[in-house]
Amino acid sequence: MFKRVLIAEDHESTSISVRKTLEDFGITNAEFTYYCDEALMQIRKSLHDDQPFDLLITDLSFEEDHRKQQLAGGVELIEAVKQIHPQLKVLVFSAETNPAVIDSLFKASQINAYVRKARHDAKDLRKAIEYIAQHKTYLSESLKPAIKQKNAFEFSSYDVTLISLLSQGTMQKDIPAYLQQHNIKPSGLSSVEKRLAIMRDSLEFAKNEQLVAYCKDYGII
Amino acid sequence: MFKRVLIAEDHESTSISVRKTLEDFGITNAEFTYYCDEALMQIRKSLHDDQPFDLLITDLSFEEDHRKQQLAGGVELIEAVKQIHPQLKVLVFSAETNPAVIDSLFKASQINAYVRKARHDAKDLRKAIEYIAQHKTYLSESLKPAIKQKNAFEFSSYDVTLISLLSQGTMQKDIPAYLQQHNIKPSGLSSVEKRLAIMRDSLEFAKNEQLVAYCKDYGII
DNA sequence: GCCATTCTTACGGTTTCCCGTAAAGCAATA
DNA sequence: TATTGCTTTACGGGAAACCGTAAGAATGGC
């Protein structure tokens, strides 16, 4: 089992509960922090002291407060940590459900487990820790079907730009000007219209308002 | 201090942490459930057994799963509970930040405390429990400025209906038919257009897409 | 009952958006 | 260079949304 565990989680109540779960594994010395930057510092220090952590449990979204942070959230934290301590096992404990985001965590960020904050998340967390200890990866059961569901439209950064502009009140006829100003191609009005039509079609939507609602729901914009 | 406490919270990890906080007050027999319907049942039973609860700690949003529920969420639970047990103190523990929603909880639903899930929520929760025990109300510090801010526009249920329809892909020209079918007045297309124009104007928006994005952000739809 | 006020609806003109088609641009290949 | 295939743009007709105005219905006070 793990010897040194670090918890990066801004919600005190959740942090407490994670520590309690670790205690069930006999891990009573888990360290914790409410800030990403501090988490990175502690990991840096642990390497320097030659007593490296062997498990990081982190949330994805950290709320801003008076303390200015370099790292915006869990994803950035994981990226930074992987640079200095690639062997460290990472378990993400978050409410995020967007399959694209979770998929990228495993693929791009090379995390070892993802546990979704949900009804039986404490049991789930326990299971995930057991899996990681055996050098296996873990993904909450409830998400496995979602992650498979490849039919969800893959929004390119171009798509996200378009929908963001709409959600900010830019009129379609004014979008070409914006795109040219930002050197984004294609910039023709027809291309914009066509791209929006493709998005609507593939999601079987009738109106752009639906696209905006959908992207808000899934945190795409 | 409280003798019988019920926790309605669908996230196991959060529920565990709330129980731990209660233990700090010497409350070791707190009951808990992951479902709204079950919470109502337990309160009903406690009245029947003449051993009523004196504190309910509840979340607002409960995720759906295989178990079909009558009560959609915390608000509905509180409404139902107040019917059968008006003296029961209610503490809401949620991540919701929309001032309009929280305001209505205190005013319409007559709750006694609102604790926001955030960085120091465990301490916050402790403070709230102390306040309620002294028959005072409590609101997380971080929300007090927000709640004052009488946010820009008061969305009526009519407004919410319109924006929901748009976000679901209903075309404006088809909205009058829907409104008539559901006996919602006014139902004229002009009234719909006018109402949308008023919303856009008062929020200084140019497009309906912005309304949808705004309402999604603030959990209005 | 009558009038005044407000709310609701109907209607037309204008703008914006939608969508199909065709032309223009561009890159790779022979 | 010419050909081919793909992407991007231009254009135009038609649908939807927007907006002002005015007629009609409902409400409340006198």
List the helices and strands and how they pair.
Two copies of one chain form a homodimer.
Chain A: E1 5-8, H1 12-24, E2 31-33, H2 36-48, E3 55-58, H3 74-84, E4 89-94, H4 99-107, E5 113-116, H5 121-133, E6 138-139, H6 144-148, H7 157-167, H8 175-181, H9 189-203, H10 208-217
Parallel strand pairs in A: 1-2, 1-3, 3-4, 4-5, 5-6
Chain A binds a DNA duplex (30 and 30 nucleotides) through α9.
How many separate domains make up the residues of chain A? 2
- The number of distinct helices of chain A, counting runs of at least 4 residues, comes to 10
Largest sheet features of chain A: 6 strands, parallel
Largest contact between chains: A-B, 38 and 38 residues
CATH class of the largest domain in chain A: Alpha Beta
In total, how many beta strands of chain A? 6
- Outline type of chain A: elongated
Alpha-carbon distance between the two ends of chain A: 40 Å
Keywords:
Rossmann fold; 221 residues; homodimer; DNA-binding; 10% strand; 48% helix; 6-stranded parallel beta sheet; alpha/beta; 6 strands
Explained architecture:
The structure is a homodimer of 221-residue chains. The first copy, chain A, contains ten helices and six strands; from the N terminus they run E-H-E-H-E-H-E-H-E-H-E-H-H-H-H-H. Chain A is an alpha/beta fold. In chain A, strands 2-1-3-4-5-6 form a six-stranded parallel β-sheet, sandwiched between helices. The radius of gyration of chain A is 21 Å and the shape is elongated. The first copy, chain A, has helices at 12-24, 36-48, 74-84, 99-107, 121-133, 144-148, 157-167, 175-181, 189-203, 208-217, and strands at 5-8, 31-33, 55-58, 89-94, 113-116, 138-139. Chain A is 48% helix and 10% strand. Chain A folds into two domains: 5-148, Rossmann fold (3-Layer(aba) Sandwich), CATH 3.40.50; 157-217. Chains A and B meet through helix 1, helix 5 and helix 10 of A and helix 1, helix 5 and helix 10 of B. Chain A binds a DNA duplex (30 and 30 nucleotides) through residues 171-173, 185-191, 193-194, 196-197, 208.
